[in-house]
Specification:
The protein has 2 domains: 288 residues, HUPs (Rossmann fold, 3-Layer(aba) Sandwich), CATH 3.40.50; 97 residues, Four Helix Bundle (Hemerythrin (Met), subunit A), CATH 1.20.120. The protein is 45% helix and 15% strand. The protein is built from 12 helices and 14 strands. A hairpin with a 5-residue loop joins strand 6 and strand 7.
Length: 405
Amino acid sequence: MPIRVYNTLSRTKEEFVPLQANRVSMFVCGLTPQDETHMGHAKTYVAFDVVARFLRHKGYHVFYLQNVTDIEDRIIEKMQKTGREWKDIVNQYFAEYLEVMDALRCNSVDVYAFATDYIDDIIAQILGLVKKGHAYVAEDGSVYYDTTTFSGWGKLSGQKVESLRPGARVAIEERKRHPADFVLWRARKPGEPAWDSPWGKGRPGWHIEDTAITIRHFGPQYDLHGGATELMFPHHEAEIAQAEAYTGITPFVKYWMHGGMVTVKGEEMHKSLGNYWPVKAALKLYEPEVIRFFLINVQYRGPIDFAPELLDEAKRSYERLRETTRTLEAERRRAPGSGKGDRSLNASTAKALADFDAAMSDDFSTREAIAVIFDYGRAVNKSIETGAGRAALDDAAQAFRTFGE
């Protein structure tokens, strides 16, 4: 069954056909390691771990790239407040992130690309944008992207240059020619980390790192870009503007996928709002399998309005499913070669595998896929009561392993 993906760029579900047969280039916006990984982060990275796993299950060779924003305003702010080196801050929180991802079985990423390892690529891209008239150098040595030169601005988010007022979701800076313009290279300020450039010492802007990293690894086009919905504008819009203006090739990304946010009483989960829950704290109360189950029991585009009671509910549901697999394993060891429940169980197994594949092939609909698994669990329990044989039970156990891949 072909996979269909909801493409934010076209606002429709499209059949997934990668640029190269059976090979998928996949990039997801990664962490800024300056604080604890919370449940909002986890939802995004668990969701795209599922995407990568299912694509591989379907036979695609997936190269999954994730960036690490290791220099950014919040890191510098923490450095200045604590007196610690920026690299020490990054190393601490990135190590904690990897620990959390390992606990949640998010192990599908092939390369974590640190922004500061791509300074030469970033500078080369900025030079190209300046040469082509898409960027300009300010008096202090900062470089800005001129959004009025890119006719495609807004095609992902619907936000048009002419409708953007000063301060509308982008920083107000006097050096900018237009409110929508964004920084590519920021001139050094006292006490901040800086790198040499043709415009003097400074550091890269937030948006430019992603296009520098992906062009290095994938070239001017790739298949799938994932990230949280709140990054659509201005971040992902800026990526498109940078890459397509620099390379002259459209589209920069074939499929854009955006995951729903985790909210608390309708507000985005964020430390500044005092409503965030670190994953490490959740892991002290719940098994990692329960947290992962909770996060995928909603289609990736859907939001989760978080409350601890929902995790309790997920724990109870997951335990019911686990009890079914335990019963199945115990029955397999003592069952005869065949039984009167075989025909029914074999039919249920075939149907469950087909329905699971259909659900996941429909824009990675994990919630529907989980419903298939629970329906199948009830059929397995009924067949065990009827008296199924070992061969049919072995196939059932293999089906559960397939669901968990």
